[in-house]
Structure formats: C-alpha cells, structure tokens
Design goal:
The chain has a domain of 63 residues. It is 0% helix and 37% strand. InterPro entries: Septknot (IPR046148).
Length: 95
C-alpha cells in the first residue's frame, strides 16, 4: 500500500468524505437489502456525525433522505456495521 494514499486502511477518505468510495453526504435511501453501506445509529463515539437536511446535502455528513435516485443506499443494522453514525442538529462530519 502506498504511503501517499488518501484512503486510510479503515476505508475512510476524510478529505473527500468517502467510505470505500461511497459518499458520506448527499441523497440517501434506506434499503432492506443490498446496501452500499451498513449503518448503526449510536449516541456516542460515532464514526460520522450526520445532519438530516431537506435540500442541498453538499457538506460532509449532510444527508437528504429520498425514495429514489440516491447517491448512497444504507441499511440500518444493530451489529457489524460498516460505519457508526450519530444524528446531530449542527456540526455534521467527522467527530
């Protein structure tokens, strides 16, 4: 692995706000199967702080929930998540 790689060994690219190439901002659809990312909702020690917005989810950690044409598909799980998220009212992004 190159030491110049922006992708950390845990799959996170903090500069580009990605996890294994998937955006951690944008239009998000909740699915029951075949997600891009498995997400566990936590109240402390998250990997990412998420703010739900109704439009323009341009910043890291801003999610707009949609029913079609998502940028990212997530599935909520209680164990073995890809990432842990905490929903916040302000200051989304990396903790």
């Amino acid at each position: 692995m190159s030491g110049n790689s922006a992708l950390a060994e845990d799959g996170y690219d903090h500069d580009a706000c990605l996890w294994n190439g998937f955006p951690l901002n944008g239009r998000v659809q909740i699915v029951e199967s075949f997600p891009d990312i498995k997400v566990e909702q936590v109240s402390s020690f998250p990997d990412l702080k998420v703010k739900v917005v109704s439009s323009f989810p341009d910043n890291c950690g801003e999610w707009e929930f949609v029913d079609s044409f998502p940028d990212l598909k997530i599935q909520y799980v209680n164990s073995f998540p890809d990432i842990k998220v905490e929903f916040v009212e302000s200051f989304p992004g990396w903790p």
